[in-house]
Each structure stands twice: as C-alpha cells, then as structure tokens.
Amino acid sequence: MDTFRKYIHADQSDQKQQPDWGINVLDVGHSIHPINTVYPDSKHPEGYFFEWDKGRVLAEYQLVYIASGTGVFEAEKLGRVDIQPGTLFFLYPRIWHRFKPDADTGWTEYWVGFEGSYANHLMKQECFNPERPLIQMGFNAEFINIFIQLIDTIRFGGPGSNQLAACLTIQLLGLVYASALLKAQSNSRKTQLINNIKYSIHENLNTNISPEELAAKHNVSYAWFRKAFKEITGKSPGQYQLNLKIQKAGKMLKETDLSIAEVAFQNGFESEYYFSRIFKSKMLLSPSKYRNNS
Fold it and tell me: Is pLDDT of 288 > 50?
C-alpha cells in the first residue's frame, strides 16, 4: 500500500450537510518511513509536525498503529517505552508526547485523528487510559483491513464518506477495546492461577515438592509457569519457595527449642549442612548465631 495522508478541515461544507455520528475524522494516513531518515518528515502541516526535542501537544485524539519496525514512545506521566511491531498507541488531547522509529529499522505506521461527543464517550472507557496509552495488538488482519478501508474512503471521497469514515473508526476502536478486554481477562486468569500456586507452595513448605511438580499439578507447562510466576511476583518459583522456607525456619529457630537438624527436616531440607549453608547465605548468620542473636 502506498504512502497516503490527508488532513480534513472540520468546517468543510459537505461535512456540515451530513448527519453528526459523534465521531469526526480529522486526519488519516499510512506512512512507510525508511531507515536512516529524519522523523517526522516535513510534509505534515503546522500543528502536526514536531521536533523531537520539543515533542508535541494535539487538540484531538489519534490512534497510531505500528505495523512493522521498532522505535520509542514517550508521553506525559509515562517514561520512554520501546515500540515493537504490532504496537498501537493513543495520543490524547492536550497531553504532551513524542515518538520516532529506530534509525536502523524505520517503521510503517497507520493513524487516524478524530474528535466528537461519541469519541469522548468511547475514550472514557476503562481500557482507554492516557496513563497507559500503549496496547499490543500484534498482527490483526481484520484491524488492518478496516484501516485500509478507512484510508480508501478518505482518499476517494464521495457522498457519505465522512460518515462512513466515522463508522470505520468506531469499528477500529471496537476491535482495540475487545483486544484490551481479552488481555485484561487473560492477565486476571494468569494472576488467579499464580495465586493458587503460591497457596500450594505455602501449604507444602515442609516437603520437597518441586516447581515442575507444582506446574504439573495445576495443568500448565513449567516454562509458562516460571515466566508467569516471575512476571507477577518478581522471583522465580524456586527462589520464592526457598525464601519462604528460610523465613519459616528463622521463626522456628527463635520460637522453639527444636534442634537445627529438626528445623531443617521440618522445612524439607535434605541435610542440616545444606540447610545451614543456605540459611547463612540468605540471613548472613548461621542458624545457631541467628537463634542466639537477640
């Protein structure tokens, strides 16, 4: 698909003669930005062009989809974020932002700018948040096809083109909304499953149940379990399990008269020597010194 962009004036006469659907498409485009070239190019009109050092503030919403290439994105209240292919981001009215492709990859982008009463309503939905403007869409054939239809509608014009463009923009937002909801539900299920496994770890601290056995017990692969567990807790399953055992052992050393060997055994350690070595590496004191240290 060729590069195309059009900036539509809100006061066009044909727009005034057509019914208001609550979304007014202001600009739309598809750009293939080559490697090692200045971004953005100078063909954008005043109010849209920006210099990287200064960034930009728009008076409208924009939906920007990066189909290929990599780059960076920054916005108010959001640090610098790496952009991968398939990333979609929203630009919100009156919020500072800037973005650009990596010089050695360039990128291909689609965008649509819009405003209106229904646009304001849609963009207040929970999954559209100016503090979290990025959504990983990946490759979505339906999404791309609708974007191409939107561009062709604006490119060729004709009766009702503005309203058809509004309808297509609503479809794009609907697909993004559905994608965000599915991701949220997936993350919720992931968190619930990891919490269930954490409970199993707590319940089996005095055994030698392995992370692989925990994964199998909950019908997930160990590779998925390890990645998801670390994503949610910040620790690997093995380290999380070991830290809990050491904490429990430390409490037993302080609050009971059990021997060090008995404490090691009750916490699933294979030997007193192994327990003592691990305990000292974690607590910086041997079990005996920890017990006697008030």
Answer: yes
Question: If we measure between CA atoms, which residue out of 94, 96, 41 comes closest to residue 73?
Answer: 96
- Summarised one tens digit per residue, pLDDT across range 54-84 is 999 999 999 999 999 999 999 998 889 999 9
Place of tokens 């974690």: 282
Contact between 201 and 217 under an 8 Å Cβ cutoff? The reply is no
Look up residue 44 and give its two tokens: 């954008």
CB–CB of 65/111 below 8 Å?
yes
Instruction: Give the separation between CA 175 and CA 21, rounded to whole angstroms.
Output: 19
Select from 51, 52, 57, 49 the least CA-distant residue to 29.
49
Within 13 Å, how many C-alpha atoms sit on residue 114's CB side? 29
CA pair distance 160, 34, nearest whole angstrom: 35
Task: Please state, in angstroms and rounded to a whole number, the distance separating the CA atoms of residues 235 and 214.
Answer: 15
Q: Whole-angstrom Cα distance, residue 140 to residue 156?
A: 25
Tokens of 221: 């692969």
Q: Evaluate whether 240 touches 282 at the Cβ level (below 8 Å).
A: no
What does the block give as tokens for 261?
Answer: 């060997």
The model's pLDDT over 159-210, given as tens digits with 9 standing for 90+, comes to: 888 889 999 999 999 999 888 877 766 667 777 788 888 878 877 777 778 8
Question: What is the rounded CA–CA span in Å between residue 205 and residue 196?
Answer: 15
- Residue 3's identity, in one-letter code, is T
Radius of gyration of the chain (CA): 28
What backbone phi and psi angles, to 5 degrees, belong to 120? -60, -40
The predicted pLDDT at position 4 comes to 92
Provide the 3-class DSSP secondary structure of residue 61. strand
